[in-house]
Amino acid sequence: MGNIEIVGLVAATLTTSAFVPQVYKAFKNKSTKDVSLTMYTVFLAGTILWLIYGINIQSLSVILANGITSLLAILMLMLKIKYK
Amino acid sequence: MGNIEIVGLVAATLTTSAFVPQVYKAFKNKSTKDVSLTMYTVFLAGTILWLIYGINIQSLSVILANGITSLLAILMLMLKIKYK
């Protein structure tokens, strides 16, 4: 695997795992007032399309990154709706 | 341009523009208590790596999407620090 593919994998890991501290903060504080519902709705639509794109081009990293990010975005939406 | 490339472009547009409503909400309400500083720090590191990746593989859509997302993430970090 070339160096640049490693950069891509690290980038995917960072932009995916970045959502974990946000989900944790919302869950711990039971407060999401400042979090934008529109953001996570639009973002989820995007990650689902990326998932379709990744399946089509048969790219495991695009599939994995956007599969996990979609789950995290769904979790955030649930927390946002529950703790308006 | 094949259909799947259009899906990729729409996905990139959605996952990039999704941050605009969050930046607007933080700016309008002058409140970011529920927004995770860790998320936007880790996310920014990821988008910068995606930018490097995009430049290396000479992909305009990866460069554009992650260039704009990096700017939005920097804006969110500034708003988060300003309106703790």
TrEMBL record, chains A, B:
GO CC annotations? membrane
Record Pfam families:
PQ-loop (PF04193)
Q: Where are the transmembrane segments?
A: 6-24, 36-53, 59-79
InterPro entries under this entry? Answer: PQ-loop_rpt, SemiSWEET
Recite the UniProt keywords alphabetically.
Answer: Membrane, Transmembrane, Transmembrane helix
List locations, semicolon-separated: Membrane
Q: Which domain of life is it from?
A: Bacteria
Q: How is this protein positioned relative to the membrane?
A: Multi-pass membrane protein
GO molecular function per UniProt = sugar transmembrane transporter activity
UniProt cross-references to Gene3D superfamilies, sorted A to Z? 1.20.1280.290
Alphabetized NCBIfam families for the sequence: SemiSWEET_2
The protein in question is named MtN3 and saliva related transmembrane protein
Q: Which organism is it from?
A: Flagellimonas meridianipacifica
> From which lineage does this chain's organism come?
Bacteria, Pseudomonadati, Bacteroidota, Flavobacteriia, Flavobacteriales
